[in-house]
Amino acid sequence: MLANSDSSIEHVVTPSIEVDELLENLNDCPPNSGPIYTTIRPSGIVHQWFNDIKKKASEVIMAPPTTGNPGNAAPDEDFLLVPSSGSELIDSDILENSDQLDVSMMVNINSDPLVEIMLENRITKLQTDLQACEIEYEQTIERLKKEIKQQNINHDSKIRVYEQRMKDYEIERTSLQRDVNRVPEFEARILCFQKENSRINKELKDSNASHGMDKTRIKELEAKVLALENRNSEIKTNTSKNNSTSSNQEISCVYKKRNSPSLMKGISKLSSVHIERYSRQLLLQDGFGVEGQLKLLSSSVLVVGAGGIGSTVLLYLAASGVGNISVMDFDKVDRSNLHRQIIHQDTKVGLSKAVSACQAMKALNPTINCTPIEDVITFENAHEIISRYDCVVDASDNPKTRYLVNDACVLTGKPLVSGSAMGTEGQLTVYNEKDGACYRCLYPKPNKKEGCKTCSDNGVLGPVPGIIGILQAIEVLKVLTGIGSTMSDRLLMYDALQCSFVTIKKPPKSKKCIVSGDSSSIKSMNDSKTVTTGLRGPTGIIEGGKSVSPYVSPPIEKYLEISCQKYKELLNSNDHPYVLLDVRVERQYDMCSLENAVNIPLADLENQFDKLEKLSSESKPVYCICRRGIFSIAATKAIAKAMAEGRCNIHSVKNISGGLDAWSKEVDYSFPQY
Q1: 160 lies in a domain?
Q2: Does 76 score more than 70 pLDDT?
Q3: What integer pLDDT is reported at residue 254 of this predicted model?
Q4: Structural domain count, the chain
Q5: What CATH code is carried by the domain that includes residue 301?
Q6: How far is CA 121 from the centre of its chain?
Q7: Same domain, 447 and 562
Q8: Is the CA virtual torsion 18, 24, 27, 30 positive or negative?
Q9: What are the angstrom distances between the C-alpha of 657 and each of 222, 536, 562, 606, 631?
C-alpha cells in the first residue's frame, strides 16, 4: 500500500498476512469511518483510489534496495506497500503485487518523468474501463427493474384471473344449490299439472259424451229460428205493401233498421225523478219552466258526428233532458282524439264513437233514450234518417257532409244547427229555421281548397271545438223549446287567441238558391248528389261494409317506389350511403321523424334542389317520405322531373310507399302515429 504520514514519508514492505489482519480489523469499523463504507457502488471506491494513488505517487520515495526478507515478512509471501506512520488504513490504499515485483527496481518518480507518464496512461485506461463497467452496471440494473416490473404485472394479472374464476365458481355453486333446493317445488308443480291435465281430459270426455244429446236440441232450435225468420219476412212484406210511397223512394236507403230509435212518446207530466234532476232549469224565469222541460223530454235530436264538437253537444243535450238522442258516426275512437273529444275515454280506444258516446250519455242520464248509428251519412240514407227527428246538429268535419245534411234538412223541413272549428277559431249558426237561409244560400259554390283542411293535418286547440259544441247545444234547446232568439239570422265567429266573439248578420234566404230558392233545381237527394261532386268527404268511407281510408295515394311508376320493409332492410345493411328526405312541414317534422332524416318541406323543394345535390353528392340515392306517402309521391315526381330536365343532378330518387303511417304499422310499432 502507499500512504502518507504527517512528519515524513516512509514506506515499508509488509507481508500480506499482516495486511489481512489489518483488513479484518477494518471490518469492525463503523460504516461512516471511510469512503468504502459510505457507498455500495464499486465506482466510488475506485475513483477514490485513483485520486489517492495519483496524489501519493508524486510524493513516493521508495525504500533502498534490501536483500532477504525485510521486517517480519515471510520469505515466500507476496509483499504490499503499507504506511509506517500508523495512519488509518482504507481500501483505496491496498495494492496487490504480483510475484515478479522487484522492490529494488522502485525509483523516485519525481526523478523519472517517464514513470509519471506511464502512471497517467494507466490511470486513464482504468478510468475508461471503469466508465464502461458503470454503464454496463446501470443497464443491468434497468433491465432487472423491467423484468421485476413485468413479473409483478403478470403476477397481478394471474391473481385477478384467479379471483374472477373464484367468483364465477361461487356464483355457479350458489345457482346449483338454489336449483337443488327448488327440485321439490318443481316436482310438486309437475304433479299439479298432471292432476289438472287429468281433470281437463275427464271434462273433455264428459263434454263429448253430452255433445250427442245437444245435437238434437240444436236442431230443434234451428227449426224454430227458421220459422221465426219466415214469419218476420211475411210481416215485412205486408208492412211494405201498406206503407205509402214517398217522393224519395228512388233512393236506395242503406240505413240499418236495427238502429231506428225507439222514440220517447209525448210526456204530459213530470215525474219526481224529472223534477229532482232538472230542478235548476225548471226554476228559470225566462219562459223555460215545466213546459220547456216537457218539450225537451218529448223531442228527438240527431247529432251527425261524435268528435270534438259533438262531444260537448251530446253531453249537454243529455244532461238537459232531451228525451231522444241519436248519434251517427262510423269512426272508431283513437287516442289522438281524446284531447278534444271529451265524451270518450282512454279505455274506449278502438270502440265505435257512436257506441262510446251513447254509453257516456246513459252513464250521465239513464232516463233518456240514446241510439248509436254506426254508419256514414250518405246521399242514399240522409233523407230517411233525418226525417225522423225534430232537429239536426251538424258536428261533422268535411264539406261534403255539410252540403248533403243541409240539402236533406231543407227537403225534410228540419232545422239545422251547424258548427265548425279549426285551429284556434270556430263558427256557429242555425240554418233552415223560421224560413231562414240555408247553408247553400251562404256558400253556393263550394271552396274545394278550403275544404281540404282537416284537424289531422292542420291541428286544433282542444277547448275550441268544445266551446262551439256548448253553444250549439244552447241553440238546440232554444229551437226545441221556442225560447229566446236563435242564430238563424246571424253567424257567430270565435277567436280563441283573442278571446273574441264576433256576430255577423246573415243575408236572408236566397231566391237563387238551388235547394231552398224559388226555382230550386235540387228536388231529391239524387239531385244533391249530382251537383255536389269533387268535395272532400268524411275521413273514412264504407265499401262493402268495410272502412276504407280516404287518403288514396296518386299513381306512381313502380321503379320510383320502395316499400317500408325494403327500406328497413336497406337501413339495417349499412352497405350503401343514402339520403332520407322528409317533405312534411316543419311542425310535423319536429313532432317525430326517422333517424338521419333531412327536412325539406314540399312547398320549398323546388328552391332547395342545390341543397339536395350537395346531400346526394351524385352518388347517394334519395328516398322521400311523408306522413301518409302522398306528399312524398309529389316530391319524388318533382325531383325525377327536375333530373330529366337537368335542373337537379343526383344519383336517383324513390318514394317510400305508405309513409310514416305504414312504417308505424308494418315495421316499427313503437313509432308514434298522429
Answers
A1: no
A2: no
A3: 34
A4: 3
A5: 3.40.50.720
A6: 87
A7: no
A8: negative
A9: 49, 22, 6, 21, 11
Q: Which residues pair with 541 in a beta bridge?
A: 548
Q: Does residue 578 share a domain with residue 498?
A: no
Residue 389 covered by a domain: yes
Residues 487 and 390 in one domain: yes
Q: Which cell goes with 279?
A: 230542478
CA torsion angle 546 547 548 551 (round to 10): 180
Measured over the CA atoms of residue 135, residue 137, residue 138 and residue 140, the dihedral's sign is: positive
Residue 375 lies in a domain: yes
- The CA distances from residue 313 to 164, 325, 337, 473, in Å, are 71, 11, 16, 5
Q: Which residues contact 428 (CB under 8 A, 6 or more apart)?
A: 417, 418, 419, 468, 471, 472, 475, 487, 491, 492, 494
253-273 confidence digits (pLDDT tens)? 333 433 455 555 567 888 999
Angle (nearest 5°) at CA 452 between 448 and 453: 130
| Whether residue 510 sits in one domain with residue 379 | yes
Q: 122 is written with which cell numbers?
A: 494507466
Please report, rounded to a whole number, the percentage of residues in the chain having pLDDT higher than 70: 71
Q: 597-599 and 579-582 as β-strands: parallel, antiparallel, unpaired?
A: parallel
The per-residue pLDDT of the chain, averaged, comes to 77
The total of other beta-carbon atoms located within 10 Å of residue 528's CB is: 24
Query: Is 156 among the domain residues?
Result: no
Domain range holding 101? Answer: 11-111
- Domain check: are 389 and 468 in the same one? yes
- Looking at the DSSP bridge assignments, the partners of residue 490 are 505
Burial tier of 52 (Cβ tally within 10 Å: 0-12, 13-18, 19+):
middle
Tell me, yes or no, whether 335 and 462 share the same domain. yes
Q: Residue 575's domain is classified under what CATH number? A: 3.40.250.10
> What is the SS3 assignment for 323?
coil
* d(C-alpha 411, C-alpha 272), whole Å: 40
User: What letter does residue 250 receive in the DSSP assignment?
Assistant: T
Question: To which residue does cell 328497413 refer?
Answer: 568
Residues with active-site annotation:
455, 626
Judgement on whether residues 485 and 368 belong to the same structural domain of the protein:
yes
